[in-house]
Write a structure and sequence with these properties.
single chain, 242 residues, alpha+beta, 5-stranded antiparallel beta sheet, 13 strands, elongated
Length: 242
Amino acid sequence: MLRLNKTAVILTGVLALTAIAPVAALAAPVTGIEVIEQSSTQQTEINSPSEYIRWLKGQAGAEDAAQKFSDLSEADQEKFVKYINDPEINKTIMNAIATSNGDKISLNGGDISVNHEQTVIPSKVSPQAADYAVQQRATSTVMGIEVVQVRERVEYRVAGIPSNQRVTEVLNGGGVVDRYLIPLGRMDVKDDKGYVNSGGLATQRSVFTTSFVHPKFGVVVATNNFTVYGNVQGQLDHWVFN
């Protein structure tokens, strides 16, 4: 997993799409719009399987991906490199995340897949109140190798007697890029302030901006909103990636 630092201002990262830490260990409540910083290499042109292996060896947490890539046949390695260098494939991945409605999607004859997973962790703090953390995670693989993993989470408090409970505040939350192993890509994440919406749901929205700089095709930019909603039962009510 890439290390994140929420005290700085720019995400310098690379695309894509576990558990959340216990709610008792959450930071102070969100107080305003913020940007997650992610440190990684700059966008890099890759022209051969050997160059990609060298690049992977410089990425934190990419050992498994490097091994799986090395295990591919030479023909499949060449095919993989073509995929990750194709701006249209990158747009296809993001579009699949946005339109999957939580279902697993297979593309390009099964070479590319997109999957979703949700996590819910309750933590009681008193007889009258409970803190909950829910998240939605999206993962994309290319030829069996996980190249993108992103998630959106919201951490919030529910108070009241069992017959009359309500979400009282959003404690924390935001978007996270856990993995992005596309050298020509970059993803920036900006978190809006979490809030309780008119329907009484804890709401957290982040803007994921993906840029892909190709030496022949120029810059391709896509912007997606990733929003999750938590309810009084401590469950992920629903999520939207668009």
